[in-house]
Every structure is written in structure tokens, then in C-alpha cells.
Amino acid sequence: MRISELSGASGVPVPTIKFYLREGLLPAGTPTARTQAVYADGHLRRLRLIRTLTEIGGLRLRDVRAVLQAIDDQALGRHELLGRVHHALGPHLDGEPSPEEVRAMAEVDRFLGEVGWRVSRQAPARRALARALATLWRMGRDADAAVFEPYARVAGELAAREVATVSPTASRPEAVEGAVVGTVVFEAALVALRRLAQEHHSARRFEPGRGG
Amino acid sequence: MRISELSGASGVPVPTIKFYLREGLLPAGTPTARTQAVYADGHLRRLRLIRTLTEIGGLRLRDVRAVLQAIDDQALGRHELLGRVHHALGPHLDGEPSPEEVRAMAEVDRFLGEVGWRVSRQAPARRALARALATLWRMGRDADAAVFEPYARVAGELAAREVATVSPTASRPEAVEGAVVGTVVFEAALVALRRLAQEHHSARRFEPGRGG
Fold first, then answer.
1. What is the ipTM of this complex?
2. CB-CB: which of A148, A164, A210 is closest to B193?
3. CB contact under 8 A, B117 and A183
4. Chains A–B, number of C-beta pairs less than 8 Å apart
5. CB atoms within 10 A of CB B158
6. Which of A14, A121, A155, B181 is close enough to B193 for a disulfide, judged by CB 3.0 to 4.6 Å?
7. Whether the model pTM is above 0.90
8. Any residues with CB less than 8 A from the CB of A3 and at least 6 apart, and which?
9. Phi/psi at B91 (5° precision)
């Protein structure tokens, strides 16, 4: 297909596709004339993945690049490939942790040990959880990580179900797409659903007159 | 307290505090000399709220401003105040919806009706959920919104518990802080915990040799 058709099928504007081509995120098409090229289904598939990573995942360009390079690096085993992808998906918390955050990280380590989850020291979500706890402290809540227990329980239920649906025989791009959809797209859905549920329950509690 | 002490207590650097003062997000302190002022506990409290909104909630400055103005606007009733806050918390999806997204929104409406949640037409999370569904379609998944059912179930459980902890007699700043913590801080924790749980379950399934 031509670049305009690639744009139509992916929903990505032509100038953005050209930008991805220049940046090497998308491999060049097959030239048909001095200024024209045709693109294959692999291009469309990659473009859709890039769009999901940026629009739903909110990934920075360098993290999109890390995901794509991991797919293309055939020397990476399946588990390492998915590890790289998960790391690129973030969240990315930069800067030195505050003293509060360091204290919260120790508490998060203790909590994860109690829950019995085996996660790498470098998992970015460890620090994200510690930051959430440190924020609670800063907002005057006298809490330890046990306050997250109901959240850990449902997160565990969802994750067990999600991991069970991963096909061990999927191709590399399929496996990465599966990981991205499972992590990023369903995360966006979960966050949206929780906000909708909060509105519903809040209205029920504080505006009972409106029915419901 | 002086601005340096306010900075120490809030963890917000002095230049950032000066920026908030210039922007009117933080009311001026009480002047003690031509270039000095002292700040009260209300300043510290507001500064902590601003930090949570920007760092954990990822809010844009104009949305932080909307939250603070809603707190200060005594003409707003409690329910309207919290509605404004929730709206400012986003997510903010700009631009015209794509035809795919429009189709997904109709499906999301149908789904919410089935689940029985009463949420306003303008709730930003409606569109966020529709976008997640449209993304699934784009990634080649042949799904309707029923795919979100397990997520809606746990979101409903969590929200019911969260709303039950809201005190109806809290002051305006307390009520807003409660809404922000409940929505934004626990959302960050939930997202982090789901990612940690995914890593744990993925390792159990795909690296069983490492024990588990």
C-alpha cells in the first residue's frame, strides 16, 4: 500500500509516519519510484503498535524505540524480550528519591514480601508504589503499606487471569502486542472504570434523592 | 514559617513556591519586611495538595488552578465542588473522536447501562474507556465492552469501599484532599500493584524453574 493508504488504515497522519520513518521507528518501504514507496502489512502492524504505545501508554519516543528494538533483536529470549518491554512501559520516575520515599520503599519491600510476590529490584512499579505511600504520609495519613491490601488483592486476581491468556507459541510481535495490550490498554480501562464507579457510588451516597 | 521552612516542610523547592505565588495558586504570605513574608499551616497544606496533584495526578497547571478555585468558591455546594474536582482530575482526551471512537462510545454507553452505573454524559472516563476499546479493535481484537467485565467488577468493589470512607462532615479542603487521595493516589497504587502482580505471575508461569 502507499503511504496515504497506510495513514488511512492506521489512523496515523502522513507527516507523523514520515517522522517515524526518519527516526527509524518504522522501516523504509519498498521504493517504486524516486519519491514513492509501498508498505506492507508489517508496517501497518508496527504503526498500530506505535500508536497504542504513545496514545494509550503515554510512552516517550525513546521508550517506544526500546520496545521496537527489543522486538527486532532476535538474540533476546522471550522472557528477556517481555522484561524489556515491561521496563519500557514504565512508569518512569526520575530523580533521586526523597528521604520519605526511601523510607516508603523499605515499607513497600516489606509489604511485597508479605504478599509473597517475586518482583525484580529494578521494577519501576516498586518506586511508583513507594511514591504513592510517601504521598499519603505527606497528606497527613498515618498509614503503612497494609492500606494497599485490597488493591493488591484485586491486582493479583486480574494479573493471574491476564497472564493465563498469554499464548506461549505467539510470534515475537504478537507476544509484545499481547503484553502491551494486557498492560497498557486494560490499565487505561481499569482506571477509567474505577473513576466511573466512584462517580456512581458517590452519587448514590450523596445524592440519594436522584434515585439509583 | 518563612519560605525556606515552607519549602523544607513541603518538599517543594523555593523557586517553585515563588512560581506558585506569582501564578496565584498559593496566596501571599503575611509581609514581615520589604522582601520577607511568613506563611501559615494553610499554605503548607495547599502546597502539599498542589504537589500531589502535579506529581502523582500529573495534572496540568490549569487543572490544578481549577481545583483550587473550586475549593475557594464558597458558593459551590459540596457535591458540585467534588464534581469540579473530579472533572479537573481528568483524564483529558482532546480533539475530535475518531469514527472508531464514536462507535466505541456507543458500545460503552450500552455496557454502562448493563452494569447499572449512573454517570454523567460528560464524565471524561467515558471517553477514556471508549478509547481503550477502540484501541483493542485497532490491535485486531474482536471484542465488545464485555471484555471489561472483570475490571468493572473490581472497580465497583473498590469504589464502593472508597466512597464509604468519605466523611460527610469534612471541611472543604479536607473533602477535596480526600477526593484527590482517593482518586489519584490510590489509582497510582493500583496501577503499580497490577504491574508488580503481572511480573510475579508472569515469572511463575514462564520461569517456573526459578521457584515461585
1. 0.88
2. A148
3. no
4. 267
5. 24
6. A155
7. no
8. A14, A17, A18, A29, A37, A39
9. -70, 150
